[in-house]
C-alpha cells in the first residue's frame, strides 16, 4: 500500500505565487488554435527533462506557450474529431517566419506529439510524418469531446536544446469532464501492475523507480521503446505544465524535477510482447515537504 505524506496543501496560493506569470503566458498564447504572431519566451533548458528557464528567473516548464525563442507551433487543423480518425496537420514556424524542415532526432524521432484532454484524460503519444515542405500530419481521433492540449516536443536542427510548445485545440460535442483520480503509486493496465517508488520534493530533482509485474511476478524482458525501457510524461493539473523525462540506461529509473507544489498526472509508457502500454498515476506534492512512496 502506498504511504506518502505529500498532499495538495495551499496549492492555489503556491502555484499563483510561483507560476502565475507562466500560467498567464500559457493562457495568452495557448488557447487559440489558429496560428498567431510569434511570442518570444524563455530559453529551453535541460536535455532529458524539457523545460524553460529565463535568465535570472524561476524555471518555466515546457508546454505553456505556443511560441518560444522565435519558434511557433502553427496548427493547420482547427478541430479534433471524436467520431473517427481525421488528419491533424501543423507546422513549426522558425525565427524568420519560415517553415522549419530540418530537425535533430531525439529519442528515435524528429518530433513527438502528445495529445491530452484538459481534464487529463485521453492521453496519446503520436509520431506524425513530415512532408518535404515541413507540414506534419497524423491521423488522430480523440475519445470524447472537450478541450485538448496538443504538445509538440522537438529539437530544430542547429539548436542545442529541445523545445516543447503547446496549443489548445477543441473537439466539438457534449463535453463531460471527469474528476481526476486520487493520488496513488500503483496502476494496472491490461493485466500488468506498475508501481512507482521514490522521494518527491517540489523544486528539487526527485528519483522515481518503476517496477512492472503480472500475476504477482516481475515482468522480464521489457522491450526498448524510443531507445529506452520506458517513457514518462508528467502534466501539472490546472495549466498542464509539461515535464518529459527518460529513464537511466537499462532501467525504469527516472530523475524528474516537479517545479511546484500541486497535483500532477503521470503517464508511463512501456513495451512488452510487442505492445506499448500506458500506466497512469496521480501525484500530489506539498511545498517544502518531501514525500516518500512505497510500492
Can you walk me through this structure?
40% of the residues are buried. It is built from 1 helix and 22 strands. It has 2 domains: 23-171, Immunoglobulin-like (Sandwich), CATH 2.60.40; 186-290, Sandwich (Immunoglobulin-like), CATH 2.60.40. The longest helix is centred in the first third of the chain and has 19 residues, at 11-29. The strands form 5 sheets. Strands 13, 14, 15, 16, 19 and 22 form a 6-stranded antiparallel beta sheet that branches. The chain is mostly beta strands and 295 residues long. The radius of gyration is 18 Å and the shape is globular. The chain is 6% helix and 41% strand.
CATH topology of the largest domain: Immunoglobulin-like
Q: Tell me about the biggest sheet? A: 6 strands, antiparallel
The count of domains is 2
Overall form: globular
- Tell me what portion of residues adopts beta-strand conformation: 35-45%
Amino acid at each position: 500500500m502506498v504511504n506518502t505524506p505529500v498532499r495538495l496543501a495551499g496549492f492555489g496560493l503556491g502555484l499563483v505565487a510561483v507560476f502565475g506569470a507562466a500560467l498567464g503566458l500559457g493562457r495568452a498564447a495557448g488557447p487559440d488554435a489558429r496560428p498567431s504572431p510569434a511570442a518570444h519566451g524563455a530559453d529551453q533548458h535541460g536535455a532529458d527533462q524539457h523545460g524553460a528557464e529565463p535568465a535570472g528567473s524561476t524555471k518555466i516548464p515546457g508546454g505553456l506557450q505556443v511560441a518560444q525563442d522565435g519558434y511557433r507551433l502553427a496548427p493547420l487543423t482547427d478541430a479534433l474529431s471524436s467520431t473517427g480518425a481525421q488528419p491533424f496537420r501543423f507546422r513549426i514556424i522558425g525565427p524568420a517566419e519560415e517553415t522549419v524542415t530540418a530537425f535533430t532526432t531525439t529519442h528515435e524521432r524528429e518530433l513527438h506529439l502528445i495529445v491530452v484532454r484538459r481534464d487529463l484524460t485521453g492521453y496519446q503519444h503520436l509520431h506524425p510524418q513530415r512532408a518535404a515542405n515541413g507540414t506534419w500530419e497524423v491521423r488522430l481521433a480523440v475519445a470524447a469531446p472537450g478541450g485538448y492540449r496538443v504538445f509538440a516536443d522537438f529539437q530544430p536542427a542547429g539548436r542545442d536544446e529541445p523545445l516543447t510548445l503547446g496549443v489548445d485545440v477543441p473537439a466539438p460535442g457534449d463535453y463531460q469532464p471527469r474528476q481526476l483520480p486520487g493520488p496513488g503509486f500503483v496502476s494496472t493496465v491490461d493485466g500488468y501492475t506498475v508501481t512507482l517508488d521514490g522521494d518527491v520534493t517540489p523544486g528539487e530533482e526527485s528519483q522515481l523507480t518503476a517496477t512492472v509485474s503480472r500475476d504477482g511476478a516481475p515482468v522480464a524482458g521489457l522491450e526498448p521503446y524510443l531507445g529506452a525501457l520506458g517513457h514518462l510524461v508528467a502534466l501539472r493539473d490546472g495549466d498542464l505544465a509539461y515535464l518529459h523525462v527518460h529513464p537511466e540506461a537499462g532501467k525504469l529509473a527516472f530523475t524528474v524535477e516537479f517545479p511546484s507544489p500541486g497535483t500532477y498526472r503521470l503517464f508511463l509508457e512501456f513495451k512488452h510482447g510487442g505492445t506499448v502500454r500506458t500506466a497512469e498515476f496521480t501525484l500530489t506534492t506539498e511545498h517544502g515537504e518531501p514525500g516518500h512512496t512505497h510500492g
